[in-house]
Structure formats: C-alpha cells, structure tokens
Amino acid sequence: MLRFIASCMAALTLAAPAAAADSFPNKPITMIVGVAPGGTLDTLARLISTELSKILGQPVVVENTTGAGGLIGMQRLLKSDPDGHTLMFSNMSLAIIPLLHPKAGVDVVRDLATVGTVGTVPMVLSVSNKSGIQDLPTLLARVRGDQPRLNFGSGGPGTTAHLAEGMFLHIAKGKGEMVQYRGTGPALTDLMSGVIDAVIDQTVTMMPLHQDGRIKSIAVSAPARLPQMPDVPTFAEGGLPEFDMAIWNGVVAPKATPKPVIDKLAKALSEAIDSPAFKGRLEQLAARAPAPQERGPEPFAKLLAQDVKRVADIASEVGLMPR
Prior knowledge:
By secondary structure, the protein is of the alpha/beta class. The protein has two domains: 27-120 and 248-317, Bordetella uptake gene, domain 1 (D-Maltodextrin-Binding Protein, domain 2); 122-220, Periplasmic binding protein-like II (D-Maltodextrin-Binding Protein, domain 2), CATH 3.40.190. It has twelve helices and nine strands.
C-alpha cells in the first residue's frame, strides 16, 4: 500500500508541470521592461510581444517598470508567481545589475530561468548636429585633447549604453562627461536638441533618427558597413577597431517557472522570431536574429553566464564599478 501511495504521489508530481503547460497561458502575460518607453528594449519588446500574442492566444502586455538600472523591474519579476504569466524582456544589462546593486542580493544566473534570445543589435555612436563633429577621428581628437569635455548621454547607470560609453572612452584613452538619464528616450531628446554631444546606443533607436537627419551617426560596431546605414563607417574604419560591442536581447522568467512552461514559451518565441513581420522589422533595424542553434533556454543560459563574467571584467577595467 505504501508503495502504491508513493507511486501515485510521484505520478502526480510529474503530471503537475505538464498540466500547467497544457493550460498555459490561461490569462494575459505581462512582459516587464526595466527602462522607459522609447528605447531599444522597449521597441523590441513590443515587436516580439505582438507576435507572441498571436501565437499564444493571449495578450502579451508590455509593462515599463523603471528605476535603478533595471533592478526595480527585476525585483518585480522575482516577486511574481513563477507560472509563466510574468516575463521580462532585457539585454546584456542583466549582467550589470548585480554589479551595480551588490546589496540587493540578486544573482541573475541563480534567480532566472532563460527562455531565449531574440536578436543581437550593433551599437552606433551618434552626435548632435550642433556638436560640430563630422566623423570619428574628429571626436577622438576632442576626447583626447584639452578642449571642454564632451557630454555622453545614456539611459541610466548600468545600462548597456552606460557600459558602452565607459568602454569607448577607456579604449580611446580619452575623457568625457557621462550624463545619466532615466531611459534612452530622454537622452535622445537632449541629443537631438544639442543639450548633450553624443550617445552610443543600438541601431534600433539610433538609425531612424540618423536617417531623418535629426542626429549624425559616425561609427557602427559591425564587421562591415550596414546596408541600412551605408554612409556610416565602422569603428575600425574610423580608427578604433578595438570597439566591437554588440548587444543581445532576450526573455527571462523566474527560476521556479515549470520547465514545460519554459519550453512552450521558447517554442512560441522561436516561432515569433521567424514570423515575416518580426523578421522584416529586425532587418530594417539592422538587428540579427539568433540562428536555430542559438535559440532556446540552454544557449541563452550559457550566454548569460559568460557575460556575467565578461561584463564584470569590462566594468572593473573601465572604472565604472568596483571588482
């Protein structure tokens, strides 16, 4: 009898996650974005959420939960029920959060379940039309000289733009003032108006503004010039080949989310990436979709673990955060 009861309990334990996956999703899904509307994360999150809604049959609603370089959004995710109905869309800044807020006790490898990456985006260095800077060599001369320091804006402490600008100035052996905003949108508004001189951010947000002539992009972190921005040289062409930073973007969930639910989300995410609408928008934005072997929870988990270490080394090297 005891063996029979134990067998029944084991069967129920195994069946519960599968049943959860069968009924998932049974209500709208919240996609947390840890930055303000208007930036790359927000743009990509809304694009992929639209396609996921069609595939999963439930609305996937983007929720901008901002503050503390993404920590507030992360805490919102970790406090949610681990049932797959609350997710977070983030990027390499995930690896920065533990460094920026060590007392928060967040360990992204320990605390998160990876669902999959969505796209990798090159970084673009753009300047204000009022800055008088026409190309990368001119900007390099400015940051290396004795003239008043250039102001570099980013979406806030710990964002990928903040890391990129610190890395750029370190590699260039130059100096500049890094101005932190509450999101990329406000930083770009001030770049267009000439309040700040430069921003380094992803093509998703920078390219449309460059194409409209509202800012001037002077370098892109890609092996060759992008077809979407053929007039913008690479960092290598401009004399700084060491700057080769590109940003991955992806979806995560709380660690305790059942594996069958994660697998169902990963399958839906892959379908969304392959949808004509999303693929077309990625191409327009000069972003690269993950190859089949790069998709899913396992490749993303490996990438996240690698970047936690890599970002810590970079941040320490450029003096943004203590080792």
